[in-house]
Amino acid sequence: MVTAIPSLTAIPAPAPSDNSIGQISFTPSDAWTTVSLDESELNSTCGGSLSPYRRVTNVLNATVSFNYTGPSFMVRTIPSRTGGRFSLIVDGFNTTTFMDTYDPDASSPEDARGRNLNNSCYRVRQYPPMVIVPVGYENRETHSVSLVYIGAGRNVSMGTDPRSLSVQFDSFALPIYSEAQMSSAPTIAGREYGFGAVNTFALVLGFTAGSLILL
């Protein structure tokens, strides 16, 4: 039984290190484009992608889904000037929580993919917290997550052609907590899951979007 709902600023109860993540699915399949990353993106100064690929869509209601076991999860997206929004559905429940990937400071989509945005070129969000937590969430160990593309971000200019917008999904992660880390260190080990890559990273609690330290 899960004993706590975690947040970005409080260390949650320990989660098992062998969390079950299930398979990442993208539906409908023809709505998603697979983009291979070049070496400069994989090794950029911001840490780069932990997966050799990213998935991109501009089709409304296109969905990326996965299952996980544990009290929390993290999602890693790529911001851009043409970034749209995901709606977060957990355990089949609309949490009224959104992931906005719009970034007006990205000088080009290429910059937003890891070259010139420094430590903000990848955004990492941890859930919970959510605007509305599904009833009984804390009593379940296994959960389902769906990220549904719903269109323009909140601050996209009025009149922007929706066909020019998109969302870019990189990977998701599950925190792995140990008693030693909880009692003596401000970082938490985690495991990142993308497309054909599994790596370890450290998440700093209370971080700003994208401030990821690679081990």
UniProtKB/TrEMBL annotation:
Highest rank taxon of the organism: Eukaryota
Protein name: Uncharacterized protein
Record lineage: Eukaryota, Fungi, Dikarya, Basidiomycota, Agaricomycotina
